[in-house]
Every structure is written in C-alpha cells, then in structure tokens.
Amino acid sequence: MSNRKKNLIYSVVLLSLVGIVYLYRKSQHKENLAKAKAKTSQKAPNKTNKVKVTGTTMGKIVYNVTYLDDQNRDFKQSIDSVLVAFNESLSTYIPSSEISTFNQGTEVSFRSPFFYPVLAKSQEIYRHTKGAFDPTVGPLVNAWGFGFKKAQEGKVPVDSLKQFVGFDKYLKFDKQKLQKNKPGVVLDFSAIAKGYAVDVVGEYLASQQIKNYAVEIGGEVRCRGKNAEGKTWLFGVKNPEYKAGKSKGKSSVFSAIYLDNRAMATSGNYENFYVKDGKKYAHTIDPATGYPVEHSLLSASVLAQDCMTADAYATAFMVMGFEKAKALLAQHKNLDAYLIYADDQGKLQAYMTKGAKKYLAKL
After folding, report:
1. How many CB atoms lie within 10 A of CB 306?
2. 8 Å CB contact between 214 and 223
3. How crowded is residue 342: how many other Cβ atoms within 10 Å of its Cβ?
4. What average pLDDT does this structure show over 161-167?
5. Inter-residue contact 179 to 173 (CB < 8 Å)
6. Which end of the chain is more exposed for a tag (fewer CB within 10 A), N or C?
C-alpha cells in the first residue's frame, strides 16, 4: 500500500475519533446541564423571587401578601379587585352589598360566589360550638357599640334583642338563596370575614400557580409552602397585656408559631373594648346571655387548614371561655390552638394543644 493511501486512511480514522469524542463530550455536557437544573429546582426558592404586596381592605384594615414567583409578577391590582368583590358581597358597611340587601329585607338570591360558603361554614361551626359562634348576634353587637350601626345611648335592651338571635332558628338557605322567617334578624360576618378573605386571596394566588405564599389580613394569616429562605413561615402571637401597659419593657409578641401549610387566626378582648362608669366592656358578645363576656381567657389563636375555620373558632373560644374551649379542642383533632389566660393570681399563662406545641418557636 502506498504511503498516500496510508495517510488518507489515517486521516479518516483520526477525524472519526475526533467526531466521536466531540459527540461524547456534547452528550455529557447536556447531561450535566440537566443534572444541574434538576439540582437547582430542588433548592430553596431564590430570594430574588420574593414579591410583597400591601394595601387596605374592609375600611382601614391593612393586608400584607408575600409570595415567591419566578416571573416576579405583581398581583396587587388583582388582589384589590378580588377584595372589592368580596366586600360588595359581605360588607355590612356597603348598603348595596348582598348581606345588606338581606338585612334590609327578608331574602336574597346570591350574586357572588362568596355568600353561600360562609353561610355553610357558619352553620357548621354554630352547631359544633352549640351556638357560641352565631352571626345573627349582630343586633346585640350593635347595641353594645361594637357593630356596624351606631349604638343608642342608654341601657342596652338585651332581653328584647335576644329574640332575634338564633342561626338555625331563623335562617333557611341553599346554594341559590337565603331567607329569614322573622323580620329584624340580621347577619354580621365580622367574626369570620377576615379569615374568609385571607382564604379567598390565597386561593387566587394558587390559581396563578403560586405555591409559596403568606397572606395576612388584620392579623389573620394563611401560609403555603416556604418563605424566601426555604424555611417554614413564622408568625407571632400578641401579648394580651401590651396595650394595657402591663408588659412594659417586654416584647409585644407573647409567642411565635411556625405555620406549616396552615392558617392561624387570633381573637382577644385586648384590642376592642371601652370603659364606662369604671367598668370594662369587651367586644365579644355571648349570644346566649346577650352580654359582653367576662372570664379568664384573654386570647385564642386557632390553627386550621383554612383561615375561615380558624377565625370562627377563635371567636367561639372567646365566647366559651378557657375550660369549655379546652374541652372542645379535645373533641376536634383537626384543630389546634394556643390559649392565653389569667390564672387565679392574675398572671398570664398559656395552654396549647400538641399540634400547636410542636410548631412553637423559641423567642
């Protein structure tokens, strides 16, 4: 064989080997990129993807929404639109809302998707708490000066107003409409509406494929996924005495709880009250007696899968008091709670279910 042919064959073989090595390295590069991408997707969300939206709703109530989004989308306009629609359905301060239409008449046909779910949930918790949570307590709440109507000066006509209180007694509803069988019966969802609004905003974010978020409206909160550091969301429980000046020199936060794909709502009589003739009147009205509650339970923080449930039970526990709240919690394993109460010496004490204790943070 001539040297020319040998050189040609050698060149062909060499080029083939170079091509094989090139293709092999290219395939390895693609494989390494795929592995790197998969590894990156398993890491904690990038801090740069954190978006925070704030605003007001239900009058002057502040909301804070934090979420992680690779596209850095700003949902403030959409969130505000959702909350406007929510208020146009359930706000007693809007004369043309669905709930105001019902309160002014005898029935209402639902125009929005919000009314029926809150009625169904209210009925469920009304029955579970044996009437401690009752949205028909509105006339008494108004009369004591804590409602959506200005109270009349003078003695509160408790006995005459109690005849209008009774969710199952006076209301009938299905998925299309709500009716009352006694004129004068009114609904007030202020003890559940903030929690429900939190859920509505959370569900909107979920519909936009947002998997990591925290929605807070007026202290009620719902969390899903992780925060920007890849950790479980953490929220505080207020010290019930911080406004009374008894916690001077101490933090306004009594405890803090990690919310692992859960919601939390807190009810207490340390925010909304007044003093008249030397006597303190709290905003929590007992539907059974018609009077503001007086007991040792100062704050009830309830943890549940949705914030509407947590909000309603927090109110119910404040009506029931410490011992009855503990007894109900023992029956309902899907609920957790952190209760702050005053002992016989007036010192603050805390009771928590196992689920709440498990997620308690060290301050």
Report:
1. 18
2. yes
3. 16
4. 96
5. yes
6. N
Q: What is the spatial distance between Cα 60 and Cα 124, in angstroms, rounded to a whole number? A: 30
Residue type, 53: V
* Mean pLDDT along residues 188-213: 97
- Tell me how far apart the alpha carbons of residues 157 and 184 are, in angstroms, rounded to a whole number: 14
With beta carbons less than 8 A apart as the criterion, state whether 157 and 136 touch.
no
State the average pLDDT for the chain: 85
Among 271, 297, 265, smallest CA distance to 283 is for 271
Report the range of poorest mean pLDDT among 4-13, 25-34, 151-160: 4-13
Task: Label each residue of the chain as H, E or C.
Answer: CCHHHHHHHHHHHHHHHHHHHHHHHHHHHHHHHHHHHHHHHCCCCCHHHEEEEEEEECCCEEEEEEEECCCCCCCHHHHHHHHHHHHHHHCCCCCCCHHHHHHHCCEEECCCCCHHHHHHHHHHHHHHCCCCCCHHHHHHHHHCCCCCCCCCCCCCCHHHHHHHCCHHHHEEECCCEEEECCCCCCCCCCCCHHHHHHHHHHHHHHHCCCCCEEEEECCEEEEECCCCCCCCEEEEEECCCCCCCCCCCCCCEEEEEEECCCEEEEEECCCCEEEECCEEEECCECCCCCCECCCCEEEEEEEECCHHHHHHHHHHHHHHCHHHHHHHHHHCCCCEEEEEEECCCCCEEEEECHHHHHCECCC
Residue reference for tokens 């519909």: 207
Tokens of 281: 């009147």
pLDDT band, very low/low/confident/very high, at 39 (cuts 50, 70, 90): very low
Sheet holding 171-173, edge to edge: 107-109, 177-180, 171-173
109 close to 84: Cβ distance less than 8 angstroms: no
